[in-house]
Amino acid sequence: MPAHVPNAGLTRRDLLKRTGGLAALAAFTAACGGNTGRPSSGGGSGGDKVNLSQWYHQYGETGTQQAALKYAKAYTDANVTVQWTPGDYGAKLSSGLLSSKGPDVFESQLNIGMVKSNQVVALDDIMADVKDDFQPGDLATNTVDGKIYGIRMIVDPQVIYYRKSLLDKAGIKPPETLDDLIAAAKELTTNKVKGIFVGNDAGLAMGGPALWSSGGDRLTADHKPGFGTPRAAQAFGKLHQLYADKSILLGSPTDWTDPSALNQGLVAMQWIGMWAVPGMQKALGDDLGVIPFPKLDAQGKPAVYSGGWTQFVSAKSPNIDAAKKFVKWLWLDKQDFQEDWALNYGFHIPPRKSLAAKASKLQSGVAADTVKLTADYGHTDDPAWTPKMNTAYNDMLTNIVKKGADPAAEIANAEKTVNAELSRLFG
After folding, report:
1. Angle at alpha carbon of residue 391, lines to 390 and 395, rounded to 5°
2. CB within 8 A of 331, min separation 6: which ones?
3. pTM, 2 dp
4. Rounded to an integer, what distance in angstroms lies between the CA atom of residue 221 and that of residue 102?
5. Do residues 215 and 234 touch, judged by C-beta distance below 8 A?
């Protein structure tokens, strides 16, 4: 997988909602779309076929754009034009969804604002017969008020991969608790190798898993902040300890989404997604192990962030029925394309349980281990968690982890923003 270099535009992993919320998609903003790539209506080489525009962000994995074009070309019931968007996909999508010139079909992650602003249409009718073949979390993350608005395309679990030989040499067992992780990272740090790489921002990507490991969640089932407990504050404080111990790698040429730091021996452990497994296996062979984010303590539970991308139909599309038919064909009926998309361009878990169970590339080694960890400990995003909430949560984490601020005070500040958003959304 090519390196992801931080830049002015949002990359794929920037949009993976590290700790929840689609940061780039401001659901209630008003913006104008420009030339959005929707094909002109009628005629063309397809005669009287409906024209559909399908939008993707620019993936980092080689071959993904060609695959998307291949799928579109194979569809015979409409003329499907693929728009592959480099740079700030989120901003372009935010404008496009407010315009009749935007996409008919697009990938994103669901935010409740998309539903309240009538930007997406419900897909319960095409999901009805296959709903039981999806993991509950992958349905929940795309459901608002009992209606399903999107179909998962891929599942991207994020975990900690480690060099077995380095832990063995130091006599360290794979960490099971957060204290174990802190101790192991410190012990594994030398003048040439750091204990762990969690991102150049000191590990904001782990803010969700740290909370889950304490037994908390961002929002409760009755739409209240769920991160204000003493145990959550304790978990956030331990992320600061990991940073303060100078056991984490900072200033890496590539960020946590790229496996270079682990592959090149700069660290003994790295927080990263399963998408990088093929590259890590090529570089490290069997010297690769995996653990979930460790539990806070004996009363906690390990955690895996189960991110991913979802396909939606725009409510602004002039051809909603045709768009739904295409989405059903590609992401529900064409299982060969679904398996190709998940497994031939980096490793991802196919959202369909039946496909994941028979995917040969996921049946052994760390890939199989990661699939099991995701099934046992996976957490998906709550669509009620808005971008504004996410910004407040990340600000809280930054102040706690990098500045050593008092967790309880920072949590209280973040809760004010979250409560205001919840009042706006739910009254």
Report:
1. 115
2. 151, 153, 311, 338
3. 0.88
4. 34
5. no
What is the C-alpha separation between 191 and 102, in angstroms, rounded?
A: 52
Task: Give the pair of three-digit tokens for residue 85.
Answer: 């968007």
In CATH terms, 158-304+384-426 corresponds, of 3.40.50.300, 3.40.190.10, 1.10.260.40, 3.90.245.10, to: 3.40.190.10
DSSP-assigned letters across all residues of 237-297: HHHHHHHHTT-B--S-SS-TTSTHHHHTTSEEEEEEEGGGHHHHHHHHTT--EEE-BPBSS
Cα-based distances in Å from 335 to 164, 167, 409: 35, 40, 49
Rounded CA separation 382/137 (Å): 9
According to CATH, the superfamily of the domain at 13-156+306-379 is Periplasmic binding protein-like II (3.40.190.10)
Instruction: Dump pLDDT digits (tens) for 216-269.
Output: 999 999 999 999 999 999 999 999 999 999 999 999 999 999 999 999 999 999
Cα atoms found within 13 Å of the Cα of residue 91, Cβ hemisphere only: 8
